[in-house]
Queue: 3 jobs
Job 1
Amino acid sequence: MLLGIDVGGTHTDAVIIDREGVAATAKVKTDHNNLITSLDAVLEKILSSGPKRPISKINLSTTLTTNAIVEKELEEVGVLAVSGPGLAVNYFNRDLGEHFHLLEGSIDHRGNLRLALNDVAAREAVADCQHKQLKVFAVVSKFSPRNPEIEQTLAELVSAESDFTTIGHRISGRLNFPRRLATAYYNAAVWRRYNTFADAVSLSIKKYKINAPLNILKADGGTIDFKNSRKNPIQTILSGPAASVMGIIALSSITEDAIILDIGGTTTDIAIFANGAPLLEKEGVSFGDRATSVRAIGTHSIGIGGDSAITINPDGKITVGPQRMGSPMALSGPQPTLIDACNVKRLCNLGNIDKSFSGLKDLAEQNQLTTEKLAGEALDMALKTIQFEAIKLLDTINQRPVYTVEEVVHGEKISPQRLYVMGGPAAILAPLLGQTFDLATEIPDNYAVANAIGAALTRTTMEIELFADTGKKTMLIPNLDIERKINSSYSLNEAQNDGISEMVNYLKENNHPEIENGDVSVVEAESFNMVDDYSVGSKTIRVSCQIRPGLEKDYLEGVK
Amino acid sequence: MKNTRHLGVIFFPAYDWAISPTHPEREERLLYTQDQLREEGVFDLPNITEYKPEIATYADIERIHFCFPGPREVSTESHLVAAGGAIKAARLVMEKEVDRAFALVRPPGHHAMKVVHGNRGFCNINNEAVLIEFIREHYGNKRIAIVDTDCHHGDGTQDIYWHDPNILFISLHQDGRTLYPGTGFSEELGGPTARGRTINIPLPPNTSDEGFLYVIDNLVQPIIDDFKPDLIINSAGQDNHYSDPITNMNFSAQGYARLNEKLNPDIAVLEGGYSIQGALPYVNLGIVLAMAGLDYSQVREPDYNPESLRQSPQITEYIEKLCALTMKNYLKPPPLNVKPNQYDTRSKTVYYDTDGINDQQLEQIMVCTSCSGVRHLTSKTHRNSSCMGIEIPIDACQRCRDEGYRLLDEGRRSFKGTTIKFINRREQEYLTVNDFELTPMGRYYF
């Protein structure tokens, strides 16, 4: 049996799933200041009510690191950065704490060391951090995925002072220095807090005598094993929305291109699926204006939900949201909302309908409109805005740059065939949204606990980048810290096989014996001749492999 | 931050296209540039956005080129995408979606002339000309200045706009006596109806940042100020770089960025540049930052040493004299010996180095006193025995317009070649006449 837990912002949900389907569910309020008590409470509740057979796996989604970052509960980090020539420092040193040290040194795009690390300055920076009693560090150099040597030297230099060091190339093998830098900083800044929480989670699980592997949810809709999450806490951010999306996949049978709308009280989250799989953010998730390299399911949030206030501005334009002034008037709220408009249009029958009518009537009369007309136009405005934003998101995705003639001329576009609607007002709005989008529409059952179901069923995900240079005779997989000699005949085929097998080996050694070669897909595989003096010399080979977000197939039938 | 602008970058490296496996114009030409731009996180900056190219249509190409036998035969899909990248740049700027745009695309185009039989100087389709005619087609007949900063003379663009007084073409390049294509001398100043609208600045080998920026400050900028264009386009070749393997100049990434900051083009289109590891990553980064109005002071090549690249006093003196002479030529170009309202004829031989084609051309331009003049040419190669092109310019007067149709009619009746291409920019009519003998309806069909 699988146990899935989502410690969300408002509620903590848990489900137990066996091969017949959902065997038990539990919901408790989240104690924002003490997530462990929420975890204990939901465990207590579900284990006492659920079947008494042993749990074989626990998947946990938690808002801990997200909260820490949003609320700036961050430990001070000694940041040692080596940029070399390029963008000026003020474009990448924002929001990285008070202890940012830019050191001299440079590695170029080929991974050649062009200027050695300024050793004296590095030691001075470390001494300064020591003086300020910093205990966690982030060390990042430009082009470290091509050559990690400067980062390795820096990690060595801080090792005596450091309880924990995040090393840039271990975060991601993709090229993007500012994102790697920010991600490394956040990873170090939440490390202690996350590990304190993780210790408590271990104790809780022992207390309830669960003896099963524990995995933590990530933002890309996959999991990371518990032990590894302690070194990579940043991977656990924003896992809640990802769990919901995975839940929808579990509850429906999405196989085509589709739009998913999750309509809440204040917002509607839009996600796009291609061939039944959720699309990921191109490079990684952003907080505010700070971009990271953390992979995430792409969701676009807009300020329209069931409780969005209806207002009319001075020139007569009707708007819905983005403000939420409180509950709908039908539930004694202060101002008419989208749900009140639905009550007036007899689309639903929620709370005190008379209050919806009188609230909209007052607003309509102030603007020389009939109540009916105002309700109709407000509803129309909400539907059209949601459609407009979804189409815009789709266009952005379809307009993503590609780099070969083949892809530009013959590349496929995503064209949604179906609309999936979930969330509180789903049943009321789904038929209208279907008309607006002109798409077949589906409301999955059980969507109230989709998040926990998604958490329970999701499998591990991973991504690696392999970079080989047959001239230098080296092969690197930065985030696995693999650096190996190859011979000059090393081929793209060998590189793909190495990428797959190294990823599988790593996962097998890290509590995922179930992963096989077939689970890994090669996302990109390119080999370029490097021509020197007009003759073909060596090759640069780039391979990117991933395990895509997926669900436990053995349990899927029962849930549906 | 300085005066930032929203920059659109159309990055299209064509990773699946090469002239041949070891040709400088091959798959990985922009690979390291992409690595650099990605690692710098350039596309995460709030005022820089990456866009996908459009795909140019054959109509976009036939608006400006006489392609023989036709555009399908002289281009590949990659040329359509590169030209489509330039069109995208134009659209973004004209629709005000961005303030500036940089089409960082390949294959390049500035050696592609009015007549196209194949590939010359790595170019088939002139991306800038396709861009300019796209703008004039959709946004009106603008005055446009093209500044070509490729190390090779932009002979294709010069040929296309030789007779167009609304297009100012300025080319800075290594002296034609020392480099392909061997043209672009000071006395090449445009045809009789566009005298002084072509400006060539042949620079001596080993010209460095100082020399290039002197030319921009003391010649290019004053000419542009005088011409008052609606738009400035930079043909942004990057082979003036000190590390370029096929040229002999000493320009740097800092120099390119400074040049771009001074010139402040609305649109830049990549041309040549074959030091793909040592120059392009840094030059492109510098241009991108300069166009976006961001700080580029830290952009430099790892081996950059300004002292070793300094130009000699002789070069400085030569360039100063060249600028003074060229300014005089622009303001008061030596008159041509032509008669108004009659045809002026020039004959030329165009060699297609890549495809080994030799083209014998005879071109006539009506020396019109009220428009750019109708253009009439014949072109003869071993491949396409004899071809004709007729162009009625966008600003054509009624007389030149009617003359164009008269030439077409005459060609249909008596031309002994294979193909006639007819471009009427005034009323946007484009025709191909061929297979004269085969049609049952007479000697020709459309």
Job 2
Amino acid sequence: MTLLLASFAPPYWLSTLIKVLVISAVVPTTALILGMVFLFKIMSWMQSRLGPQEAGPRGTLQLLADGVKFLQKEDIAPDGADLWVFKVAPLVVLMSTLVLYVALPASMHLVVADLDVGVFFVLAVASLSVIGVLMAGWSSASKYSLMGALRAAGQLIAYELPMVLAVIGVVIQAGTMSLNGIVLAQNNGSIFGWSGIGFPYILTQFLGFFIFIAAVQAELTQPPFDMPVAESEIVSGYQVEYTGFRFLIFFLAEFATAFVFAGIAAVLFLGGWAVPWLPTASDWYYVLGPIVLFAKVMIVSFIIFWVRFTYPRFREDQLQSLAWKVLIPLALVNIVVTAVLKVVL
Amino acid sequence: MLALLVAQNIAFYIIAALMVVGALRVVTCKNLMHAALWLVLVLAGAAAQYILLASEFVAITQVLVYLGAIIVLFLFGIMLTRAKTGTDDDLDNKNSAKFIGGGIAVLLLGLMGYSLIDGFKDTEFGNLMVQRTAQVSDSIFSTYLLPFEVLSILLLAALIGAIVLARRD
């Protein structure tokens, strides 16, 4: 089975077609898994409620039912909305999510494009979703939407910087920007000669991991960083005028982005698709790689959603001063210390 | 190799046509927000052309800096100052200004076209090498170290200047 997969070398058009199909199937599936497991089940357990019970065994199909419900709804645009921009905006956000999946490696060869500068690419395209958010907020012709979009833009600009700076520590330590290269560097590394667990960078880059997760949380506009969609003040911000499948696209994009960012964090800090006990060159990773990555993604997602369900919302000034006065200086210190240690050790 | 070149050329012309349409719409659009969004298309097209020219670092930097930061600041600024939907009739220039602008555009087209043709007329497009990011960074931090540092200080000075200008106290 594994050898069969290893020797599969389709022509360019076929491999492109397969990649497109796989990504378009993976993105909604991951969004459904995260929404189901964390938003419905874990959240209700944390808050001592039952959560959805009716659709499917123990309510596991609730999100599917919700999705079908969204698809049946009428496609409404507000009077006075800029129709063209209004309709394209969710697609821009979704496109940014889809492009993020391009660089995420699920094993050595199980990756859409194994880019030399994978990390850099991820950080660059992650910033594209802001354009969609601003388009949505402006074109809705609504005060709440506009306020939400402005808050979102201010927040996303502020937290993009700590995210980029947090990753640099890992890049310095691994000596490469390729995501596969970072996985290999961690799993073939050793801690002072002991290679029992490889060398996951969370041990040395714990600060970077913390800053990265905080920045991811802010990029996803999840609590405690949910000023842009604060439902008690601006009733969901830029999404407020969206109904039916356009709202569904925003929802899918948010959770799929959460999944892919958790994946990037797993690759950067937890060793990605490999386990230290099996050599990274093994053919087993064709099957095992995605499973290992998925397990690590679920661990990181759990942290992200745990924080989401636990902490109350930041005020706008707290949010900005956390980014500019705490996270960015910490990230800069982290870079300096990592660079010095890299040269000294 | 030949098939790749043909595909590259076809992609170049499609993207270039989109960029030209986008650029024309940027200046003729009566809606400021739409003009900024057409500019997104032009800048994304430029990034795509860089990828066709096998320089991944410049392409990704183009996306990160222009699309991710500058365009977002444009949109942010427009939404803070004049966020109305619909068209603005006062966005147009006087006829004399239009002619001067058109003249400058034609002049620039001639100048840049001439310098491009003059500079690259003997270059074969086929033996294009992929420019690795590691090579780019190696040359920045060895051969071009001094200009790079000077540029950094210039940007820092601009940054401080902007803060001084923006703060009234």
Job 3
Amino acid sequence: MQIPQHTMTQGLIFSIEEFAINDGPGIRKTVFLKGCPLRCAWCHNPEGLFGGPQIMHGRDGDELCGRFVRSTELAASLLKDSDFYTMSNGGVTFTGGEPTMQSDFLIEVLEMLKGKVHTALETSGFCPEPVFRRIVGLTDFVLFDIKAVNPEVHKRYTGVDNALILKNLDNLIRSGKPFVVRIPLIPGVNDSLEAMEQVHELIMDAPGLQRVEILRYHKTAGAKYPKVDMEYNPPFDTDAEPQIHNIFENSIVL
Amino acid sequence: MMTERISSLKDYFFDGKHHTVRRTPQMLGLDTLAVSFSEQNLPASMRASMMLEAMLDAERAVIFDGEQIVATRTITSVPSIFTEGEWKKIKESHYLHENGMLSNISPNFGAILEEGLESRKQRFMDRAASADAEGKLFVSSVVKSIEALQKFIQKYESCAVGMGKHDLAQVLHNIRAEGAGTFHEALQLLRFVHYGLWASGCYHNTLGRFDQYMYPYYKRDIDAGRLSRDEAYELLQSFFLSCNKDSDLYPGMQQGDNGQSMVLGGRDRSGRSLFNELSGMCLEASYDLNLIDPKINLRVDSGTPLEVFKLGARLTERGLGFPQYDNDDVVIPGLMRLGYDEEDAYDYVVAACWEFIIPGKAMDIVNIGALSLAAVVSESVDKLGSFSSFNEYYDWLEQDIRRRCVELSKQFGNLYVVPAPLYSAFMDGTLERARDITVGGKYNNFGIHGTGIATAVDSLSAIKKYVFEQKSITVDELQAALDANFEGYEDIYRKLRFEAPKMGRDDDYADSLATKLLNSFAKGLEGLTNERGGIFRAGTGTAMYYISHAASLKATPDGRKAGEVLPANYSPSMFLRHNGPVSVMKSFAKPELDHAINGGPLTIELDDTIFRNEENLEKLAMLIRSYVILGGHQLQLNTLKKEDLLDAKVHPENHRNLIVRVWGWSGYFVELDECYQDHVINRIKYSI
């Protein structure tokens, strides 16, 4: 596809990881897009929250976190490696932050990759519905995060209401697209049997559901906060052992 | 799984309880033999067989509780057959490789297991009639050596009888004369043959294609219903265990550097995979035992099933630093390109570390020398001012490499290797030639390691980009900065170290220079021959040179300061800001590695968190397979547990079991010299 350079959108990314092994099928390259509308209390990538470049204190001194990249440039670099990832039936995963926040950019990149390399999207689902449907339509695989079905719990621990998220979950299910549901398991927040049953209820009949991935909370989540001059004060007991109610037919605890 | 028998034997040996049976050669009067040999003016070949005979006569038969595969060294070292004065004279007129003893080749184990010692001995005896004087001497030394080994086996048989171990006694009785009839006999005979090589002072004694030559015995026993898989597995573990009980006595640069490498899998000329049930059991046994020997190599190719890579990846999790993967797609054509016959190339095995050799046939000295490519580039900086373009400079550099190769090739003249009659008995062609293997075999090639490849390539990249293309650093500035070890040249230092193109980031700018440099290295050695008519093989290993070559190297144009070490083997710079293993693999697979096929793996450190679940194991297997498909020639993966290593330096007593891969071998971390410990710890920063 020939698109004049100057019409292409720039995106802001804060990391690209090779040999990502927990972000979808096969070996993947994961692109982290900067900026997120949620403020989850357990977030382990605080440098992905703010939607602009920022200073990050590192071992070798301060560095700028976040770099702008044109969609054409990113797509070209991803396609350069695509053969390698295809060998393991892997591909490219977009995560963040919340990747759909930079929807114009993401859509352009996905359009350029379509049919050439397997793509996956990891999303909170917090995104206008038409945009979400468009992006899902361009993606081969979705990793959909569900933090809490209970609206109050969701609002309290992520800062946003989950109505839109649940609508997009429904949009995803209706699309028939293969997807996994990811549940960050936070002790005392969303680890009760009831909370799991609520998730189960929503997804049990989804034709595209591949499996449920339960991600255990790690205390190391707080490690990067001082590097971006943020404080880490999660309003839950980080030392508590979470309950594990693995009620899903096909699931894995990571 | 380990049975009770295996696990208690493992503990027994690991705790060194069997060391109580050890004696020194001095205690047995063996240390004075050289003097008496010298007084009698005996030829070396005869001395070698007499020394082996004396050693094995003085050895005791010791059978530990529960042992199924016996033979333990009780004498701590093998005395020299020459007096100090004689050694001095030999050194005056000869080139000696390392300590002068035969090392780092691979016998034809399969043939001796099949034929048996008595028949082999007989054939050598029969050869005497038609041999010349030197041949007669050689043949009689071989016969004497085999007899000594047979007597030694008999001693064990009597011991077994005395202890009422009749099954074991029967095995020992059979293999003293005959070829192996069962899996147990094959393992026990192999143990004695291997033991004999060590007892004759030869070292870096490899184990070759164990799964291939051992499989027929396994299969026959299983098919006949004589042996269950579990029984066979226990015997296999017993054999593996036996490789560990004396290994602290084996000579090497550091403890663990003993060359007991074993090669599994591979394919034949029709493309058929040779990975069999026993190959899988070997990987499993190594996983279960979690010991440094034998060191496993897995021959793979682009068609190897993912399942095989998964078995390998599972063993990688142990952190033993093996299996090492060798890619048949690259190695076989590479060896053929060097002049190895097709059937021999297909039969390749791995020497002590990573060098490719032909079992039974090659008297190659694969680690005879090294060329520091980092030094070649470093020393060229003084000349930079006389060139107007990079190409002009590089043409000169290529000639300089050639000049150095020619010079290097002349250093190994009048080579002398102490005769090895017992080893010769297990090599092909020695009978027909009636000559010791140490004077030459079918192949007599020498291998030269190319060290500091990434440092050299990164330096060339920086020179090309900043001096010749951008002209942003002048020759004078670069020279001054390097002379000052970058003191006062902070900007240049950062630019060279962090911004310049580097090998390992999938950047064609640097990687194309790697291709160029490796080709120049191979070309530099092309056409050169040694005094035995062999050729010189270019390789990508470093051995211990990554420490010594770095010590004499000043600051380099890649932003490396004086004193900073070189990467081990064929690996990215120690301070590369890498994107991840995919870029590293892609970069390192780009050069035409079949042109520089002496051996030397891409080495990647893994963080042990990768092994959190079965799924990740499969992805690691996919990663390894991808490297093989890309055309990488050899791969070594090390799993590092950072906290353990750091703590082990402070509290070695708590980490006696901690195993790391050093350069081409695995050893116990706490037994290593500090410079090697630090190199390993340094590599963690770059793990994935």
